[in-house]
Amino acid sequence: MYQWRKFEFFEEKLAGKCAIPDDVQGKIECCSSGRGKVVIGSDDGTVSLLDRGLNFNYAFQAHSSSVLFLQQLKQRNFLVTVGEDEQVSPQLSAMCLKVFDLDRMQPEGSSSIIPDCIGILRIFTNQFPEAKITSFLVLEEAPPILLIAIGLDNGCIYCIKGDIARERITRFKLQVDGSSDKSQSAVTGLGFRVDGQALQLFAVTPRSVSLFSLQSQPPKRQTLDQIGSVINVAMSDRLELIVGRPEAVYFYEVDGRGPCWAFEGEKKLLGWFRGYLLCVIADQRNGKNTFNIYDLKNRLIAHSLVVKEVSHMLCEWGNIILIMADKSALCIGEKDMESKLDMLFKKNLYTVAINLVQSQQADAAATAEVLRKYGDHLYSKQDYDEAMAQYIHTIGHLEPSYVIQKFLDAQRIYNLTNYLEKLHEKGLASKDHTTLLLNCYTKLKDVEKLNVFIKSEDSVGEHKFDVETAIRVCRAANYHEHAMYVAKKAGRHELYLKILLEDLGRYDEALLYISSLEPSQAGVTVKEYGKILIEHKPVETIEILMRLCTEDGESSKRGNSNVAYLSLLPSPVDFLNIFIHHPESLMDFLEKYTNKVKDSPAQVEIHNTLLELYLSNDLNFPSISQANNGVDPSLRVISGAPVVSRAESNGKVVPDGKDVTKEKDLLGRQKKGLQLLKNAWPSELEHPLYDIDLAIILCEMNAFKEGLLYLYEKMKLYKEVIACYMQAHDHEGLIACCKRLGDSGKGGDPSLWADLLKYFGELGEDCSKEVKEVLTYIERDDILPPIIVLQTLSRNPCLTISVIKDYIARKLEQESKLIEEDRRAIEKYQEDTMTMRREIQDLRTNARIFQLSKCTACTFTLDLPAVHFMCMHSFHQRCLGDNEKECPECAPEYRSVLEMKRNLEQNSKDQDRFFQQVKSSRNGFSVIAEYFGKGIISKTSIASTGASQTGNTSSASGF
């Protein structure tokens, strides 16, 4: 083992002034540590406690004679001691075990205090005969339960288990070696091993190593080795038993001997500290003792020191404490990691440094820093491959730019590529790293590695690089197939299509790819790249749009329940922007859609767009020359009008065939527009399936008279209809329109004839024929008085009196007849009035004789009490009931007259209605006269006449 390197990873603490205080009297027999204290047992029976720095705290008398063994417990501040006390009787041994509670002090006299002794137990009894104690060990199972193992020189182990303070214990014995030679059978070392529920006890004698399984009853013994040891043993942090022999140090596990380490020299003391093996070795050649600290993982000696004769070795306060036979002491502590690494860095022992930080489980950042320094060292020596191997281990902790900057040189591009690959494998690469790696592949022309990097993804589809960056770099380097692969696998359909369309111009393949996508994804891609597709492949693109916007393939499954499904489909309105430079294709698409889908949720917007396309004057269609130069021939005829090119039209040679074609296309589109206006406004709908205001604006802007007339007529704006004819000076159409729209019997507006007469009166040209026809309808429906007709036509200087001579003659004759009829009616009304006045005067001045002998109601003979009314009806009073003030026979008629008058009076309050009747009437004066005649306008009063009662009771009522 001399080839092991030696380092000074430990240093002496307390500046060499560490020693056992003089307050510790007698010879030191035993030591223990724990809970921040060092406990020393002396041959005079005292126990001394030392604080940090081996400063004396206090001492107390534990036993009357010598303290042979002691152990400081970890879970509780208890101290267990084994020592000799005064012998009570010859039959009882003086050897006893005591348990002290160091947290509870009992005053003894006035000068000192001692811990409370909570339990005293005699070790040897009749069942457990006395022998020399050679080893002692305490296990805290579960407080207050203790398991105490006492090794004897006769090869037996006495075990005491239980709560000693309450004297609830059990004893049992384990037989290790039954040899009569006590020098070979003494138990020299003990070690507990607790692994889960398994409780095991190692026992070492000079000629054997045994293992007892204490969880079984009785405990089972297993011999691990036929060779033992005479010095103390130790337990590693991996629960291994450490046994020292002159030739080597052995490690034992539950299944036998494990690794061994051949260290020359006689082993006097063994220990274990933080993964280090502690060993005091006597050199036979020079008679000196050496204290070595071994790092077994890294195969190095962490510290080596020549010492005096060491009697005890402890570990406390993070230090190693060596107590010498002359009561001097050494306190050795481990240096911090930074100091140890600096020491190794100075010697360029980077591999040792790496192994050191890894074996001591340093954090990843510290390990990465060591690897970085090692990489820098190798880089300075121009060992670039090995340097990169170290830098790769720092990924995740070292900033990648630190490494990348070192290897940007073209000669080291292979190393840089390797580093960037590892960076991507660990998912720590940024967009810039992806760009750099792909640039490395393209500069190296390494298509194989490029394929591996891009295509070797797991089945989940998670990428180790930024997709957009990879696609961008591959496109820039003309690796379009790789870029397409990445885009397709990542589901970036828009990028895949961008490459196909913009870089490769493979339009058919792009259309096929869009067709394979889900409808939602296909819709998004068409919106983004539809302009390019429409420009180069309009027919195929429209087919895709039709599949997206209609229910192809689904109608057979859904039957008649398609309305709800249509609302989930994309709307053609969503794709209007892709046709911005191709209105003819848009018109074709919308026509196909409307022919297939009759109840689209977006039909209003679709109809609006179609109207704008149909009625627009400047919609240009491709000519034959354009079609022959690469434009799809299917676009030559969109609206049904044939293409004519510098040819004969109606038998005539035209100077420019394109203008004729454009004119025919316009006429055809206008015809479609008019048909759309009609079809989209069925008679059962109050409002059309398009924006009516927009339709009117389009018709006016593009001078589309037929559409404008239809809309005005449909909206019942008859005056606007005839205004259109007036503006066009279409007298024949104007009269025909008034015939159709001015017939009140068919819901028309007769006032149109008055407007028409006014138009001819202000025309300023000879229109005698038209005026005579108009006067015929005015006279027939009695629309205007003759005086108004004369005044209206007098404004046209081109008309003569002969135009209206016959009309005036007929009107005068009619008026004469009406005057004669009115005169006769007046005479009749005057006679009736005089008769009524005489009757009223008679009622006021003369008595009325009631001669009815029967009741009008029941037709029985009239007897008293009876009621007689002025209307000459008589009733029994019992037949009238409570209604004695009006005649039951005449009351309904009288009430109906009153109710009619009240209604007329109420209606007269509505001035708008009154004026509307006056305005719409042929003779407004007659309406006013009617209101006066009904007594609605003038204040009227109802005259009531008195009633006389005959017999016991009588009453009167109106006529």
UniProtKB/TrEMBL annotation:
Keywords tagged on the record: Coiled coil, Membrane, Metal-binding, Vacuole, Zinc, Zinc-finger
GO biological process terms, semicolon-separated: endosome organization; intracellular protein transport; organelle fusion; vacuole organization; vesicle docking involved in exocytosis
UniProt family annotation: Belongs to the VPS11 family.
Pfam families to which the protein is assigned, alphabetical: TPR_PEP5_VPS11 (PF23356), VPS11_C (PF12451), VPS11_N (PF23266), zf-C3H2C3 (PF17122)
Coiled-coil stretches: 809-846
Cellular-component GO terms for this entry: CORVET complex; HOPS complex; plant-type vacuole membrane
Subunit (UniProt): Core component of at least two putative endosomal tethering complexes, the homotypic fusion and vacuole protein sorting (HOPS) complex and the class C core vacuole/endosome tethering (CORVET) complex.
UniProt source species: Trema orientale (Charcoal tree)
Main location: membrane
Matches recorded under InterPro entries: CHCR_PEP5_VPS11 (IPR057308), Clathrin_H-chain/VPS_repeat (IPR000547), TPR-like_helical_dom_sf (IPR011990), VPS11 (IPR016528), VPS11_C (IPR024763), WD40/YVTN_repeat-like_dom_sf (IPR015943), WD40_repeat_dom_sf (IPR036322), Znf_RING (IPR001841)
Domain of life of the organism encoding this protein: Eukaryota
GO function term, MF aspect, one: protein-macromolecule adaptor activity
Cellular location(s): Endomembrane system; Vacuole membrane; Prevacuolar compartment membrane
UniProt name for this protein: Vacuolar protein sorting-associated protein 11 homolog
Topology of the protein relative to the lipid bilayer: Peripheral membrane protein
Ranges: CHCR repeats: 391-542, 560-769
Its biological purpose: Involved in regulating membrane fusion at the tonoplast and the prevacuolar compartment.
RING-type domain: residues covered: 855-890
